[in-house]
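note to self: the first set is below, dont mix up w the second
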Amino acid sequence: MTARRMDQIWLFGGLALTILLVAGGWFMMIKPQYNARDTVHGDTATTQTQLITEQKRLAELKTELKKINQYKKTLVTAQQAIPHDNTTNRIPEFLKQLQTLGAKYDVEVSGYGATGEELSKTTSTVTLLPITLNIEAVKVENILKLVKHLQTEQPRALLIETAKLGEGDMGWELSLTLKAFITSTETATVKS
């Protein structure tokens, strides 16, 4: 072999080795760094999108937080309307309300009777307590005012099923059959 031929082999071998080192360096060191950079950029874009979404949700929650007192009042009203099931079903409190209303409207609420609880057919956490009441008054208008108050203003949720008005000892007598609602779902007690 001639020296020239040896130089050419070394030249081509060196060139091939240089190309191989550059290609290997590209695929083993540089390209993974580009891929890692692209992944970080993609993750950053995703995180920024999530951040914008969460900031919007935080603004919505802050707006809702401003309404917390309104929500507490609504909860208190709902708890009064459908009290949590306990041993008395809050009937003594209800009877006191009826007596107070009777004095307010100049009627006599008597003849209270309650039968066993019934499960609601539509809501599994609600039971119904059938109640019968007798209301007597001199004026029928007073009885009607009391009934209207029971249906629209007093806090306890009641459903009047039957009403029978007739003449009684005091003047007028109304016999009511109604249902009071009780829930088995306990909620936190709040103060309005």
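second set (the one i keep forgetting abt)
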Amino acid sequence: MPRKVSLDELNRLTVEDFKTADKYPYALILDNVRSLNNVGSVFRTADAFRAEKIYLCGITGTPPHRDITKTALGATESVEWEYAADVIGLVEELKVQGWVVAAVEQAEGSVGLQNFLPDSNKKTAFVFGNEVAGVNNQIVEIADFVLEIPQFGTKHSLNIAVSAGIVCWDFLLKINKNLT
């Protein structure tokens, strides 16, 4: 009969060990995300799936904030993050540095997540947009591609924190065959 394991049995990294551990070659860009709970949830996801960095852009809230801290459960201390007021400038800078930039959005010509094949030799930045308006149209236009999560129900979108979790896990599965 299975049993739940205790927190001690999980053997998680300490914050100090996490900071020096190798990260997976991807970053998350949150552009104009209104909900501080969503921001905190994305921090937790970035910690769980060892993202290299989170960029918080536009009106997206930044730590320290009570609502971010509440949902991040300490991940704001482990995950590297940076605020960038200008998301377009940030994306252009990352592209110059050799990053592949994917806007996570529903758009013409998008690549379905099931068909996404990351280049394990390049870093990928995933852009997530505002809860109502989505990813900024200018980012959709300058991104290397648009990545779309297939959906089969009646709703037309997913919560940004849920989308980030799906994209991160999919990316890790595809670049690290040892996870399966």
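remember for set 2: The chain has one domain: 8-148+155-173.
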